[in-house]
Specification:
The protein contains 4 helices and 4 strands. With about 190 residues, it is α+β, with helices and mostly antiparallel strands. The chain is rod-shaped. The relative contact order is 0.09.
Length: about 190
Amino acid sequence: MLDDINLIPQTEIIEQKRSKIVSSSTIFSIVILLITLGISAYLYTTLSKIDSDIKKTEAEIESLRSNIKSMADIEVAARNLDKKYNALRSLFNSRVKYSLLLKEFEARKPFDVSVQSFDVKTGQISVSGTSGSYISVKNLMDNLLNKEFQDGNPSLKDVFTSVSLNSVNLDKSTNDVKFLIVLTYQERKLQGL
């Protein structure tokens, strides 16, 4: 029964409850404030670290840009060198190898035929010379057009496409046959060999 009797006035009880609530809410607010301060400090340090990383990366990028700009002359020189290399390569691949044409002609020429002039133009050759007989001149013309000729370069077996005899006469003082032939050839056969 003594427990039921409360001698503290009602206003005092309300005041004590209010003071407990205020102290509880103050402690709760301080705890929330501390948590907020902790999160803020964490975010601030993380943001500062990210900021310093960004600045460091930007400095590295600027350094690399300056390195690239300093290599601009090298890049220009390399591009020019590449253009020159490609031009030379295409020139060497597309050049006509007249020495092979001369070797092929010499291989097909009979032994008693002597060449006095050999005028090479694009796709056409004018040959003048002497021979011991008309038959040697005929053999020269046949050999030049013979696609199965054995003594020549196999890749040039059909380099000569036509032969025409422009003049032939017998020199009575030397008993030699003078001739002038014009032959056509495939220039593309002499490229890239």
